Amino acid sequence: MTSYILRRLAQVVPVLVLVSAVVFFVFRVIPGDQAVVRLGMGADPQSVRELREVLGLNRPLYIQYFDWLAKAVRGDLGVSVVNKQSVTSLVLQTFPATLEVAVFGVLLALLISVPLGIVAALWRGSWVDHLTRLLALVGFCMPRYWLAILLISVMAVSFGLLPAAGYADLLTAPGDNLRHAALPVLSVGLTLAAVQMRFLRSSMLDVVGQDFIRTAHAKGLAHRAVVLRHALKNALIPFVTAVGLEFGGLLGGLVVVEQIFAWPGVGWLMIQSITHRDYDVVQGAVLLVAIGFLAINLAVDVVYAYLDPRIRYA
Amino acid sequence: MSANTLAAPSPQATFAASTRTMRAPRSPTVGALLALRRDRAAQVGIGLCVLLVGAALFAPLVAPFDPIVLHIQDRLQNPSLTYLLGTDELGRDVLSRLIFGAQTSLAVGAIALAIAATTGTLLGLLGGYVGGVADSVIMRVLDGLLAFPSIILALAIITALGPGIGNAMLAIGIVTIPNFARIVRASVLSMKQKEFVEAARASGATARYIMLRVLLPNCLSPLLVQASVSFANAILTEAALSFLGLGVQPPTPSWGAMLDTGRKYLDQTGWYSFSAGAAIFLAVLSLNLVGDGLRDALDPRLQRNA
Fold it and tell me: Residue A164: which residues within 8 A CB-CB, separation 6 or more?
């Protein structure tokens, strides 16, 4: 197991370097001289030249990259032009809000999808199966941002049950925080549940077609025991991976939901910074989201290898 | 004993029976088309797609109003006989804007798909067939693209290039490349050592000929399925980018931008944002139904009459 983890860690390093290069060079494409952008159009050439010197913009691009990378490794991703705060701390401050919605959203989705997925596979072809498949299809195709707006229009505008937008600190005002988190979590959880349900049902049906299930039936086990003890266990292995990857995807996938609910997570920060042309913050947020995404994918791989020894020795 | 077995079979019947057993196996394409015809869900999907493409192609003929003409006195109306889906905040007809919005969505989806499918397929063919250093380089680049949640990478590209419909197409296209490259590479790797590729090589075919004429046609089924799913995702991403104000710019009608504006007037009319969201939903639903149907129809394991 240790050697597997070490091998996977070694594979992550080149990807990280690549990610940093993508992030750096994509943001160098931004048209216009960054020194002029920062000082405004009417800035005098002398101060533009000085700022270019300070920012290192007059040096070769690859030197700028290594310079930026060396700083990034030490956690220095620059300073926000809007509020002069360090980019790293600005982005890290918004992570808990995103994580909260992601964690609760995934939990809610699991509460819905696992029982329904099992029921659908147990009574395959019954009306329960058809109904869950229909719901899953609708949820799967429903844009998450549309569901969010529908929820606001029903729960907040029509009935006034829950706040339409806003945020309260989880530690100092937990009740208020949860009330504000309810709609974002619902819109993430319900759409995710549909994806998970489809996945669980199809991986259950894959497993049910295999020889060892026939053996279990042949030795006289009840259908329920075969499904719950033999099929489910094996179907859960790919399912855990899929859920883990979805969770990683949510780190960035919440951009629009956060924007709709004015929920101050990473995605919200990115959009705010794009609007204010605060490019260092966007760049830092993209980099940190990618690193978080990679870390979660790595953790998922390790869990997968733990659950399924065939992976470790492949 | 039944009467059937007692009666001697007529010569015609024997001949008919023997031709029935000797009939050439049905081609996989025909089998797939027949399977698709039996799949009711896929037919609903195809029907919706035809409707959508029709609306986009004939938008000026179908739309009851000009999508950018203002009727300020009629702003934010609920559906009526004049305005079937109501009006927006400037009194423009929502239905007409949705119909013209279909043009935008389909155009962005189709061009993004073309960028992703051609680049991805070529990279997959090259990596899978040539192997070695080329494959390693291609795979690392794909790893680099896949290391981002796709909407984040699209946002980064849009930030760098600036908002707009062309840049949205490019961003969505780039983000979708790995989906195609990986599928093609995987099928090329599984076919590379097969006899028919061996035979092509032995008969002196060039690498280019083998990749494009021998391997590519055999990757088409997974590519087709991927294309329908990626098209749906492209429409979703375009709507999200326009929703955030980074995609299609006003006054061009776009479903995502309409959804965003509509939500600001939820307390006055819910229809505006509802119908924009429903349009996105139906487009995504139809493409996914077609994708699911194609997947089942093209899967040889599921073909009953192959």
Answer: A152, A156, A157, A183, A261
- Is A143 in contact with B284 (Cβ distance < 8 A)? yes
For residue B280, the one-letter residue type is I
Mean pLDDT of all residues in B47-68: 89
pLDDT surpasses 60 at A78: yes
Q: How many CB atoms lie within 10 A of CB B196?
A: 12
CB–CB contact A290 B263 (8 Å):
no
- Residue B88 · residue B75 · CB < 8 Å: yes
Q: What is the pLDDT of residues A1-13, one digit of tens each?
A: 788 888 888 888 8
Judged against a pLDDT cut of 90, whether residue A172 lies above it is answered with no
**B113-125: pLDDT as tens digits:** 999 999 999 999 9
Q: What is the DSSP letter of A75?
A: T
Instruction: Count residue pairs from A and B with Cβ separation < 8 A.
Output: 126
Instruction: Choose among A18, A141, A157: nearest Cβ to B143.
Output: A18
Q: pLDDT band for B303, please (50, 70, 90 cuts).
A: low
A296 touches chain B (CB under 8 A): no
Task: Kindly compute the dihedral angle of the four CA atoms of residues B124, B125, B127, B132, in this order, to the nearest 10 degrees.
Answer: 170
Q: How many residues does chain B have?
A: 306
Q: How far apart are CA A145 and CA A131, in angstroms?
A: 24
- In terms of CA atoms, which chain B residue is nearest residue A246? B149
CA distances from A40 to A35, A43, A50, A80 (A): 8, 6, 14, 16
Tokens 């996977």 correspond to: A8
Inter-chain CB proximity A27 and B159 less than 8 Å: yes
Note the pLDDT tens digit of each residue in B142-196. 888 888 888 999 999 998 888 889 999 999 999 999 999 999 999 999 888 889 9
Omega within 30 of 0 (cis) for the link into B25: no
Which residues 141-170 of chain A have a CB within 8 Å of chain B?
A: 141-143, 145-146, 149-150, 152-153, 157
Of residues B232, B256, B234, B233, the one with CA closest to residue B245: B256
In angstroms, the CA B104 to CA A279 distance is 28
Q: Indicate the angle between helix axes B28-38 and B40-57, nearest 10 degrees.
A: 90
Mutate to test the interface with B, among A141, A277, A297 (most CBs of B within 10 A): A141
Pick from B149, B236, B281: which is nearest to A251 by CB? B149
User: In chain A, positions 258-287, which contact chain B (CB-CB < 8 Å)?
Assistant: 259-260, 270-271, 274, 279, 282-283, 286
Instruction: Say how far apart CA B50 and CA B56 lie, in whole Å.
Output: 10
Compute the distance between CA of residue B125 and CA of residue A207 in angstroms, rounded to an integer: 32
CA distances from A305 to A14, A20, A230, A297, B243 (A): 21, 27, 19, 12, 40
Q: What six digits make up the tokens of B161?
A: 């290039």
Contacts of A251 in chain B (CB under 8 A): 149
- 10 Å CB burial of residue B113 (0-12, 13-18, 19+) is buried
pLDDT in tens, A293-307: 889 888 888 888 888
- Contact (Cβ atoms closer than 8 angstroms) between residue A150 and residue A187: no
Q: What is the predicted pLDDT for the residue at B98?
A: 92
A39-43, A67-71, B262-266: the lowest-pLDDT one:
A39-43
Residues 6+ away with beta carbon under 8 Å from A80:
A86, A87, A90, A273, A278, A280, A281
